[in-house]
TrEMBL record:
Residues 8-119 form the Response regulatory domain. InterPro entries: CheY-like_superfamily, LytR-like, LytTR_DNA-bd_dom, Sig_transdc_resp-reg_receiver. This is Two component transcriptional regulator, LytTR family. It comes from Pontibacter chinhatensis. Keywords: Phosphoprotein. Pfam families: LytTR (PF04397), Response_reg (PF00072). Coiled coil: none annotated. Signal peptide: none annotated. Residues 138-238 form the HTH LytTR-type domain. PROSITE patterns: HTH_LYTTR (PS50930), RESPONSE_REGULATORY (PS50110).
Amino acid sequence: MSLQKTYRCMVIDDENHAIEVLSDYIADTPRLQLVKTFQDPVAALMDEEEQYDFVFLDIDMPRLSGLDLARSLRDKTRFLVFTTAHQKYALDAFDVQADHFLLKPISMKKFALTVDLLLKNIERNAASAPPAEQTFFIKSDQKHKLIKVNLQELICVEGLKNYVLLHTLGQRHIAYLTMKEVEDALYTFGGFMRVHKSYIVAKSHIERVESRSIWLRNNLEVPIGDTYRPGFQEYLSDKILVTGR
């Protein structure tokens, strides 16, 4: 059976019933995984999770409007979908680069069609895109100097506060980038996956897995974060040879 990508979701709504409805819809959609829910928009603003694929966000909430919250969350998610009972917010929603607008009450059919449309768009674009060059450049710590990184030699990316450390087969390079920026860039190439808040690994350089650690080329050990464990286990499940005896 072919392995399909699982898309990570967050739901933010001040009404518990609305959260329950969307949580049920996500649970009934095979390719979606519910990661977090928030009734308090301020708590959602302080969320430390690095990246989501879908954020389903109410607009009319106390203390912090969904429109204001969206401006902070836009860079943390691939798809931003507003869920609201008020049609009047539609134009405002797209001003903050929302991908879709669902008017409550939201039916399972309407939810499923929206998710399917958004996923088909990115998968169609990925399929039609020309093969990406398997290299990229990063700025070095020296002025006016760029360093070329070959993706086939990139073992993992380690996040270190305001910069990242790129481990390659022969060297290590420091770049003033965020983990999200690197993750988004590597997504276009494929072959890499986030396994921890602070680590992205190259699947081709995984040598063994022991309990809560991944061992890579060059004897690099990387922890598996609890948030990313289900996705990594799903990846492994399609690679493990099991005897039929």
